[in-house]
Structures are given as C-alpha cells and as structure tokens.
Specification:
Layout (H helix, E strand, L loop, with lengths): L9 H5 L15 E4 L2 H11 L7 E5 L4 H9 L3 E5 L9 H5 L6 E7 L9 H9 L3 E5 L7 E2 L2 E2 L6 E5 L10 E5 L17 H9 L6 H18 L8 H6 L16 H9 L2 H19 L5 E3 L13 E5 L2 H10 L16 H9 E4 L7 H16 L2
Parallel strand pairs: 2-3, 2-4, 4-5, 5-8
Antiparallel strand pairs: 1-9, 6-7, 8-9, 10-11, 11-12
Helix pairs in contact: 2-3, 10-13, 11-13
Bound molecules: pyridoxal-5'-phosphate (PLP).
Length: about 375
C-alpha cells in the first residue's frame, strides 16, 4: 500500500536536523496534542465555545474538523467556496446569526489562503478565527510561515512526519480560559509497534506478517470486533474523534521526530515528488492536478487531482494499492463547488519517503484510473 501519510524510513532516523525549525511551530509557543482534531477541540474549549454555539466551517472540509465541534454540542454551519477553494466574506456574512462564535479557515493541501480580510471581518463581529494549518506545516505566504492571522492555529504533525500521532495548537490572542498544559506522554509499545510495522525499515514486512497472523488468530478466538483506538484510526486516515484524546499530549516519539527529522529534506522531497507526478499527469487525459503549478510558498500535503470520473478513478486507485482520500460526505453541505469536488477531487500521496519505484507505480496507477471506463 502506498500511503498518504509518510512512512518512517532510514533517512528520517539518520537526519540530524530539526523538523520543526522551518515549520508553523517555529518561534511560537505551542502545545503538542495527540492530533489536529484534538487541537481544534482544545481551541474551542479555550475560547469558551459551547453547546448551541455555531461555528462557520468551509463546506469542503474533513469530518475530523466538524467532529470536535459537535462533541462540544456546538453546530458547524457551512460556508460556500469558490472554484479555487477561496472564500468570499459575503458568503460568510449570509450565515451569521446571534449564535455564531467562530470561523475555521483552511490552507488546503499545503497552499496558503489569504486570511487578512477574514480576520478583519471576524474582529468586527467579535468572532474567533481558527486557522487550520493541518495541511500546511511548512507553507509560507509572502515569505512568512502561515499560522499568524487567526486568533489561534492548529497543525497535524502526523500528516508531515512519520509519527504515530501528533497535532499542535497555538494562540495568537489570549483565550478566555487558559489551557492546562498537557503532561508529556511516553509512547506505548503498541504505538512503537504500529510505527515500525508501517515503516520502510528492515524487518517491517516481518512485523506486518506477525500482525496479520495475530489478527487472524484473534478473529478465530472471538467473534467480537477488536477494540478500536481513535488515535490509531487518525493515523490510518480515520475521521472519528474521541473526546478523551483532548487530554493526551503527542507521544514522545512524535516529539522526538519533530526535533530530529530534517525540515529541508521533507520540504524538498515533497515539492520534487509533486513536480515529477504533475509533469506526468499533464499528458494524461481524464485527470488534471488541482493547481496548474505548485503555488508560491506551498509545500504539498497531498497531490490533489481532479478526475473526470471520480468514482471509477477512486475505486481503481484503491484497487491498485494506493491510499487515496476524498471527502464525499461534503456533497450535502450546500455549496456548488464542494458538490462537484466531493467525488472528483482525490488526494493522493506525495510524501517525502516515496521511492523511485513507488512514484512510478503511482504515476501508472493515476493514468490507469483516469482511463478506466
Ligand atoms: C483540513 C483538516 N483539518 C484538520 C484535520 C484533523 O487533523 P488530524 O487528522 O491530525 O486530527 C484534518 C484531517 O484529517 C484536515 O484535513
């Protein structure tokens, strides 16, 4: 399986850099959380957003963004987006009620959104702007890292580093309720196992075999479903949210990788992989990359592609062993752009640990998916 999230490889272990040095966390006071969704939940708590409040969320969004809002008893209200996923403040204005308390804005797939006008609008209506940098760990806008416009910002570490878990939260404006700092958390054996078995390190395939045999044996011993961990599901691209995960810090291994891995390597490899795949896709009928070229300052989280026949392409890519994400549930969010993208916009792997043969496999799978009848 070629995964969207980066796998641990020898290059990450050998790197002696600082993955956070050129990231949205650089030079900030931040707290490490168990995931991006846990960081959203903690931000809502800190700003006192409660039951019956409304939070404006872009219609094209991930369930992991709305679940923490609903977990507080608040209501996500969706605002429309333009074709390039930018927004018009007029659209937000149309959804404003006496219950609106906050707005979430996203830097999609690693390209910066211009949020200055939105911040002014939020200030004029006493709303909190939460800047969602889950896709934009290394993204710059006008040579500055994103994350400084919102009253608070969140990041998702596991989308950019080969960690089992990890998110981050920071404040650019004082929250109403100060947060209790999360105590450092050591990684469990289960987390280390999961990290290593999903890795590209020697011995990982043996570990995967052991896991498969064990799962098989357990399935034989009991018909009950094995207990699910929300954090594991977040790491595997799952979208559930367990409110208890708000009280957990990022694991020690995620914090170690943040200090140890190389920002330069991650940024360069991701941009290079993007360029290589985008070049190949230009000659393929039935598919195009969402951006005509990599936007200035962007470091891609995924390779976003628009397929003429999204459903067929999605099934074809999955059958080829490619982990591809899409947000089909956003069809219902009352936005024409989002309705079109819900099934046709596929998020493909572009991460730093992809090797030459994986890139070739990806490019062949994309061509086949675009041509599948
Ligand atoms: C835009 C956006 N924000 C937030 C999240 C939540 O991040 P995490 O998966 O780290 O909880 C996601 C994740 O899937 C996302 O796509």
């Amino acid at each position: 399986m070629i995964t969207v999230y980066p796998e641990l490889d020898l290059a990450a272990l050998r790197a002696n850099g600082a993955a956070l040095s050129e990231s949205v966390l650089a030079g900030r006071d931040y707290e490490l959380t168990s995931s991006g969704r846990a960081a959203i939940a903690r931000a809502l708590t800190a700003f006192g957003i409660d039951a019956n409040d409304e939070v404006l969320v872009p219609a094209y969004c991930c369930l992991a963004m709305t679940a923490p809002i609903q977990a507080r008893g608040a209501r996500p209200v969706f605002y429309q987006l333009r074709e390039d996923l930018s927004f018009d403040v007029q659209h937000l204005q149309a959804h404003l009620t006496s219950r609106t308390r906050a707005v979430i804005a996203v830097h999609y797939f690693g390209a910066a959104s211009d949020l200055d006008a939105l911040r002014l609008w939020c200030d004029s209506h006493q709303l909190i702007l939460l800047e969602d940098c889950a896709h934009a760990f290394y993204t710059q806008i006008d040579s500055r890292l994103v994350g400084s416009v919102g009253h608070a910002g969140i990041a998702s570490i596991m989308k950019f580093l080969p960690s089992y878990d990890g998110g981050a939260l920071w404040f650019n404006a004082a929250p109403r309720r100060p947060l209790v700092q999360l105590p450092p958390r050591s990684s469990s054996l289960r987390e280390y196992w999961s990290l290593l078995e999903r890795s590209r390190l020697p011995g990982a395939s043996c570990m995967r075999l052991v896991s498969r045999v064990r799962a098989h044996a357990m399935a034989g011993a009991s018909s009950a479903e094995p207990p699910k961990s929300t954090m594991a599901s977040a790491t595997d691209g799952g979208l559930e949210f367990d409110p208890a995960s708000q009280q957990l810090a990022a694991s020690a291994s995620a914090a170690w990788l943040l200090r140890r891995d190389s920002a330069r390597r991650i940024k360069n490899q991701r941009c290079e992989h993007f360029e290589q795949l985008a070049r190949a896709i230009r000659t393929m009928p039935g598919v195009r990359v969402f951006w005509s070229e990599l936007p200035a300052g962007a470091v891609p989280y995924v390779l976003p592609c628009l397929f003429d026949r999204g459903d067929i392409a999605f099934a074809s890519l999955r059958a080829s062993g490619i982990q591809v994400f899409r947000w089909e549930f956003t069809e219902q969010h009352g936005c024409e752009t989002t309705r079109r993208y819900a099934r046709s916009l596929l998020q493909l792997p572009v991460h730093q640990a992809l090797g030459h043969s994986q890139l070739l496999k990806l490019s062949n799978a994309i061509r086949a998916a675009a041509q599948a009848a």
